[in-house]
């Protein structure tokens, strides 16, 4: 998948920096824009039909959350960017979905990029890039397509639950990011479950040849999740240290809270990573143990019957003068000898704990 | 277990930040509140029946230790928090038991979260979250349930042993944290014993197939203990550097002492961690050595008897003209040849040190 | 190849520092010089026939890009360097192709060295050293030979696309470096593909003995690419922090953008590196699994037929008194016994999941 | 042994911090106190019979070295500590032998704890804690028991060799610590010898099953030595940066010298550590090589004789019509065929380099 | 060899710090002193017969390079040191050859210690300690014995090539150190070649049992070279940041150049280190692959002939009633059956790709 991502990047190579080009897969999505415009007393929720309708919300006294879905509509996004006086590189990054989580601090707005992780129906991890522009009294959010983890945020704004309606745009950005980080917990919990399942399977020997493949896939997934989440710590850190009107002092405590959650997530990821690395070793010892079993069976069978066969071979020889052949009870005595040898062998292997 | 923890976290996803919800398992515990209120001259020890009784202790001249057990009683804790003017996020964190050890510095109190580790009857490590609020002349402590490592602290306050009765609340917090850190030593000592036992078992070959499982379990335990203890170093460090009336200069020497203990604990943990990693390698060589043994037995048996059987086979053939068959001493000569071969083989294997 | 590089270096050992000697392979290349001299209104593009023609461009008001190909022409480069008042060590470094990416800040120019990576027809990674001198209104670039990744840059200057014609020389340097960094994505993407192909081959068992060799080669390639790219981050960082007229404040945002790309590239490289390291482990388990298969076949064959052969051997003995030999149905009964044994064995191995 | 150490620690759990309790094993040692009191012109050397005799040396104009052996005599040490105005925690740490090397800076004295390492008769590493109190004109040293590495220091003071008699107490502390660090070299040299011996043994195959055990023991020893020595670097560093009358500027050069020695020691330790880690891999390949040898012998024997035995079996069959049986030279021809097969096999295995 | 080094150190343990004692092996070397005294206009080159003759060069206006070979002549070196007012510890370090590369900055001179590495005739790495004293207009260099890498430096001073004759003593020190660092490239190049040769040998299976030994030796050599070179980076760094008349601003650019070379050297060393670590893994897979081959041969032989031998055994039985024995074509039919079985087996193994 790294392959895919870089290919997307390559769509742009050779172009002038600042060229605004959508680099994702979802090029047939509709443009979906919703706006929440609220203060302590009221809350307007609206779906917009053209990007131009969003322009007015820049200047309202209320806090506005303008949520744009559909990064393939680059023209609309470019027009919006120009209206909100965004730097050309910001507009370029908005639609270039291979960004690493980062924050760019401009004079009158902050530009934050991060990854929204969520599980689809088959428990596969999905990655979607979400960008935020935090202005004095608005937050713009940009997603590739509809569908997100912000359901509870919408609910809280509508119903005025919690503090959100009494706070500024920096608090709005906080609850949006908090919703994303909360989802990280589910994702890594699922990864953890998969690792533990795999561990159990290896112990019980239920998977065989494909084990290395499954381990390798899990390893890659963990590395990818890690790469999507780790840089966010630095982003939050920068927000906490940001010195301007955009982030108020009292809100920083909340960002500190996200930071603590992120540390927890990343610590878990690193523990899972260590676990996966040792899975391969575990699998290796499992294989070796099995081979040991196989070898023991072979050795026991061969060690018991090869000498007996030799003895039988002796008396199958056609020499004229073999005195034992003519003795009447030879055959029965031989059986006795063989049975004694057989039992002796069994005892020997029992003592060595091979049986 | 990481799974469990994150599940607890998820109880909260989708809720407004600041929602005060207990995230632990122990939801049927009674609320148990005890208070120690003391100065140089006197010491009052009391069990409270409602949270409201604790409110008055905020203002006494004496140092007060209010110990609240039962985080499932969120209402009571919320009322207490409001009375003591705690930040909403602090109240939220108090009852959310998946916290990482941390310190939050507020204007007139410190909020410290850490993990109390202790061994249960089966020598399993138990983790319980303990939070402290350090105010000008009080310490609030919050535990999930009754039962803790503070027995000696209570004794010392009651009897006025040591310096505790002549010092302020910062010293009280110190002896509480010191009691917790002291317990860490027992816990990691037990872990160390388990590792050494496992090591011995592997050397002596007493455990077999389950070894990887036991190693993996120990690895996880060490990683979990590590995660519970490591961040505490940063917490103590922050207390030492804290600049306010809450932590007096003369007490900082004592916190430095805890810090030194913590460094010792964490160094031990890291050594155990390295030990465990090499256990898997050791186990692997043990397996290989065993397979070598098995292979040698097989090779010796096969190498000795296969050629002898071949010779017996030769004289079992039914050709009409095999001159040896008719010679009188053939059979005995053949036995001689076989015995010589047999002994020769034994000498050969002896020389190669396979016997 | 490290060998080759150091050998190149050795060409110089024993010489006075500052000796200007070309250390590369391509000693028969022509000197090819091209100039772009442009401002907002016009753009002159010219191929020069002697290095002296380039001297005048130092003083034009326009921004000049002088691109020199053919580092073997040390005399010409030395003359150019002297005319542009370059430090002797800079001139030495220009033609010494074993440089690490670095930046040297002089009073009135910056000297930047980096590696241009591109893939040749066989998808092999090629490394070419490119040096830049950034002066107040000119950029000198030095390459070993013609052929580069600057095609799109030329196009943009010619046609006045993007901002380039309205910006200063620092922006020109930026788009040149951006073109190089963009190419890194293709290179590491190809490396990533090779690693994934190898992974698939190992899983499917299509490559055998040579696998370690291929893995080792890939490992070396990744380490070499890493070494060529990693130091560049520090270079860009230093440009961003550079305090002089040469780098304007508004251009720094653009360098920040390159920096972000570099972080992405280097993160990918590190993930690939981890992947390669685990490939060897994967290959090892694959081998062990195969050996297990081989052993099982041997054990099954031997365990089934060795006892049966023993039984046949018994009745091949020539004792005079073996009662069974004379019983009429002995032979058929024996067949029955053998078939029962055979089937019993099969069931046993089936149960152990060896079949 | 980590176990033992923590057990010692636990002797104290539950006690008030500051409780002065000896945590070591050597509880039956006599108290042995010696004093050196010297200046440029004279030197008094004395053995004291009670701790109180030492009190006067605090105020003499000469430099005094008071060396106390026998940490089990806690009362005496407590009285001494009180007389020299030591902080309660310092007195506690003096007799608690599980300290990590550390320095505590107090207003008018420095408290330094480190580990004295020396080899006993069986070349085992012994660890003894040594604490120093550096005052304006005295050094107090505390050891568990008599016997140390300070012989040369005493000699130098007595005879006035070197600079010691003309320098202050900070120089005395330096030569004491220097004597300890010098001994580290012998200790790690011996560890290095053990590692190289083990390496040779593994190469030559002289040790077998116990190799993992020996490797693991060495690993632990190296880790323990490392832990005893590493923190000392920080201690020396702090002394060098210490700003007070206690450490004079001209003495710091000497501490720098100890620091350089310590870096050498720790670098060697880290190299030994890496060596040990690779020993296990080496041992593993040795085992695998041996198994290869065993397998080759088995395969050669089986591959040669199994087909020959088959041929003999063919002509041991009792079919009535086997034409070859009646031909006169069959037996001899068969021998020829078998010998050809045998030699062919040998050549084949020779070519594969198995012989 | 670490052993040897520490033994040397131990020669000194128990001695007063500052004791000037030669710790190397070469105690029978002659004292060889040469002087270069030069300025722009002239150059005197002289071999001195006693150390006292060197004293005058301290005060000449010219730049003087006094090169002393033969550290066993400690008296002479001590007299020289005293004349040049060197600190006692410096004189001690000059003749103690187990120093780590370091720089000590004194008020009117710099003391630099580093390791000269060069290859002897058998391509073994030789280590010789070289110390420099950089004074206002002189450089003292100290070597254990004659023979060094300074040939080109002498030539350049004699002939006035390059800038050396017009520069101060700091530039002289630079070209001396540059000569040493240039030699590092040859040394690590040779190490690199050895590693690649070993790699090829392992791939081709040409070395066998001794491979681990060779790998381990190489690993040690790389670690030793690394330890000799790494600390030098810090030394050069300190020279660059040194603030005094001794190092002129314009010379620092040159030291920067050495620094860049050192980074290149150390990066190569680290890559070689990683390569060596993976050699052991490679060797392990090679062994396993070989064992697989051996096992396949055994399994094929056994699987084919054991069943056939069983069949032959059946008809070797002496039952009176075996109907097949009397049927005329039985023997030939049996051969047919056996050949079919044989071919079937071959096809089976072909399909499994074992043949």
* Major pleated sheet of chain A: 7 strands, mixed
Number of helices of chain A: 9
In round numbers, the mean pLDDT of chain A is 88
Helix-strand category of chain A = alpha+beta
Gist?
The structure is a homopentamer. With about 350 residues, chain A is α+β, with helices and mostly antiparallel strands. Chain A contains nine helices and seven strands, in the order H-E-E-E-H-H-E-E-E-E-H-H-H-H-H-H.
Textual characterization of the structure:
Chains A, B, C, D, E: This is Magnesium transport protein CorA. Chains A, B, C, D, E: Pfam families: CorA (PF01544). Chains A, B, C, D, E: Mediates influx of magnesium ions. Chains A, B, C, D, E: One of its GO terms (cellular component) is plasma membrane. 5 copies of one chain form a homopentamer. Chain A has 9 helices and 7 strands, in the order αβββααββββαααααα. By secondary structure, chain A is of the alpha+beta class. In chain A, strands 2-1-3-7-6-5-4 form a 7-stranded mixed beta sheet. In chain A, helix 5 (169-204) packs antiparallel against helix 6 (211-241), helix 6 runs antiparallel to helix 7 and helix 7 packs antiparallel against helix 9 (330-351). The longest helix of chain A has 66 residues, at 249-314. Chain A is rod-shaped. Chains A and B meet through helix 4, helix 5 and helix 7 of A and helix 1, helix 6, helix 7 and helix 8 of B.
